[in-house]
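Hi U.,

Before I forget, here's the chain from the pilot set. I'm dumping it here mostly so it's searchable later in email.
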Amino acid sequence: MRRDSIFYKLFQQSPTLLFELLSDPPTNAAAYRFDSVAVKEPKFEIDGVFLPPEDETEGVIYFCEVQFQKDERLYERIFAESSLYFYRSGVRFNDWQAVIIYPSRSVEQRRLYPHRTLLSGDQIHRIYLDELGEIRSLPLWVAVMVLTTVEEDRAPEEARYLLNRTRAESASSGSHAIIEMVTTIMAYRFEQLSRLEIEAMLDITLKETRVYREIKEEGREEGREEGREEGREEGREEGREAMAHAIARQLTKRLGELPQNVESSVMHLSLPTLQALSEALLDFTGLDDLQAWLAQG
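Structure:
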């Protein structure tokens, strides 16, 4: 599951979401804007930086890290990144805060003692999503965030609830964006399922949502990019073969191991046919669908 991109989109859609997690948010939380930056020399990647208004002379900058896998040197990295960025940009800010979002306490690194001062103060905020409460009692945007951690067997039911709740509160701002985020999360969590299966699970038409268009374009672009790279080096035919390999990988991921004769058929398709297949495969629910599609060609 691509949680980094999901949380990036969450914060893009609703920058104030970060502050809904904090017990003492800044009074001007609504004026913050979200960005993602890279700090060089050495190169550090900061998941998210929340910047106060530019006309605020003594603003507070918030760093955010979303951590779903254990990293025993996470705090060393976060504090180094934050301090270095603040050092270079500190003339604009008078303080910095950091928010680390975990699915649960079990993911947090074990060695806390070297960071006891920061961790016990009011500058570092550790958020454990599984401790925020029942998903149905949370504000919608926070509930969408918690959906990324819900057990797989409960996720479809909770996703349907959030979609229905969002429709019922359609007058609220950002309702369409919430629907997009819920469908994106579920499409990535259940990427082994076809579009039709996802639609049936959520009672929604994915073809009309951004996630469907992004997934479709992602598959096509993967093949095109490999085709372009190979084509520049080896020629048009090598580019076509690279795209065929990319689509064969997608088919294997969706349908399981392909029979040798089927894989061979895919590998010998023309470039226009491969492009058509990159769109059609999103509707395949089994190997029979692929074989029927190839037979029609």
